[in-house]
């Protein structure tokens, strides 16, 4: 022991970094390990996590869920109105929003503004005040897009008259949906609801959607995985950067538009709108990723994450093995670049269903040239998130916290760890119940 302390020593410090700082000040040679207890130090969750790691039921379930995800073959099949696609829209006044469930009084400004705009778009109310009264009186139901096989960026609003992209998984026939992208500026998905915004939505229903539907009838179904893979090779990440994907889509859809019997003026208007909007493909990629993740859903005991979504207040995840249950925590702020005149105090918290793209990640069909065309990582295992403390990173736009202002920047954020800790507890309870073990 005396000989040991007579030699040059190197200290490995775990825990508080101040311990390492003090040793350095005293002249010590220190390596600080950036470590913290798994599952946020929750003892019960940590024990559940240790038990679930390499559990044969969970491992087998994850293999099955991941195989279904890889097998999915999403195609853009059609464009239809929400009322035609979603049966619930014909049974009651229903508006869908992004993220996990949330009550009207708890919603953020952009989502409230977008819902009010949708109520007016449907003709259920003549002005903002009347629309809000209708909602407060319980005469309009508000539910997550994910509860209806759908997704929407930012506020994520879908109302009965809105046109939807229809994506079908050719392996199992399951269909998923997304609304059409409005472009940038003051748009409904960022909470704007002016006359200009509503008129643009009416034009999309009357002119753009029928043109897209007619073009798809000419082109036939468009396979989306090859298109997305090519866009990745061209520099897109098929979430916040969609220029290449939109360009590839234009190459498919414009020749088909020219093959329709539609009036030339309508073809010109529709083509111009798509070409002017680099984000046009975003909503299609979201529905495609939703299709792939839905294929992996509802595999008992799987710890694979199938949904990550935000409503501007809370962040929610769902696991394949825990059914449709949401695990929620306060949504993190977004770290990014702001447009001139805006800052972090102006921003709403993380918002939108577009994190379905990060949930899907990649797979062997999606490769990256910068990594010698290695397949991109795919599949989020809630166990590994809680164990390693490495949170999924999400690329997103930033909405102003007040309705009507619109987008004020873009950046990145992470999912909150609390969601994964609660999911681990629930999954452990399900496995224990199956095995007849006491909690």
TrEMBL record:
Which Gene3D superfamilies does this chain map to? conserved protein of unknown function from Enterococcus faecalis V583 (1.10.10.660), Enterococcus faecalis V583 domain (3.90.1710.10), NAD(P)-binding Rossmann-like Domain (3.40.50.720), v583 domain like (3.90.1700.10)
Tell me what this protein is called.
Answer: DUF1116 domain-containing protein
Organism per entry:
Caballeronia arvi
């Amino acid at each position: 022991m005396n000989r040991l302390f007579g030699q040059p020593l190197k200290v490995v410090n775990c825990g508080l970094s101040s311990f390492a700082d003090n040793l350095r000040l005293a002249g010590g040679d220190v390596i600080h390990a950036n470590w913290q207890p798994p599952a946020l130090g929750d003892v019960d969750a940590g024990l559940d996590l240790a038990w679930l790691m390499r559990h044969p039921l969970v491992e087998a379930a994850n293999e099955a869920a991941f195989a279904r995800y890889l097998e999915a073959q999403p195609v853009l099949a059609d464009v239809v109105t929400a009322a035609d696609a979603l049966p619930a829209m014909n049974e009651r006044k229903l508006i869908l929003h992004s993220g996990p469930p949330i009550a009207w009084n708890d919603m953020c400004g952009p989502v409230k503004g977008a819902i009010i705009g949708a109520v007016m778009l449907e003709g259920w109310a003549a002005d903002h005040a009347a629309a809000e009264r209708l909602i407060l009186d319980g005469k309009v139901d508000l539910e997550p897009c994910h509860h209806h096989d759908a997704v929407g960026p930012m506020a994520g609003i879908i109302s009965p008259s809105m046109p939807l992209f229809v994506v079908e998984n050719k392996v199992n026939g399951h269909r998923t949906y997304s609304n059409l992208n409005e472009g940038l500026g003051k748009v409904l998905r960022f909470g704007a609801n002016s006359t200009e915004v509503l008129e643009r939505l009416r034009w999309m229903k009357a002119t753009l959607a029928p043109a897209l539907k007619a073009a798809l009838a000419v082109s036939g179904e468009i396979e989306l995985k090859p298109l997305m893979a090519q866009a990745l090779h061209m520099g897109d990440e098929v979430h916040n950067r969609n220029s290449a994907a939109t360009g590839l889509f234009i190459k498919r859809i414009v020749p088909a538009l020219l093959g329709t019997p539609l009036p030339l003026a309508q073809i010109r208007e529709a083509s111009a709108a798509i070409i002017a909007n680099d984000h046009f493909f975003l909503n299609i990629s979201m529905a495609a990723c939703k299709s792939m993740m839905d294929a992996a859903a509802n595999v008992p005991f799987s710890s694979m994450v199938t949904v990550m979504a935000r409503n501007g207040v809370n962040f929610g995840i769902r696991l394949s093995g825990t059914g449709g249950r949401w695990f929620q925590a306060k949504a993190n702020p977004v770290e990014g670049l702001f447009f001139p005149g805006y800052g972090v105090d102006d921003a709403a918290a993380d918002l939108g269903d577009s994190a379905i793209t990060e949930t899907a990640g990649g797979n062997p069909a999606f490769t990256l040239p910068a990594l010698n065309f290695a397949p991109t990582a795919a599949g989020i295992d809630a166990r590994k998130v809680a164990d390693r403390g490495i949170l999924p990173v999400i690329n997103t736009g930033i909405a102003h916290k007040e309705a009507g202002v619109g987008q004020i920047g873009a950046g990145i954020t992470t999912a909150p760890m609390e969601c994964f800790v609660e999911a681990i507890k629930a999954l452990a309870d399900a496995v224990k119940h199956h095995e007849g073990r006491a909690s």
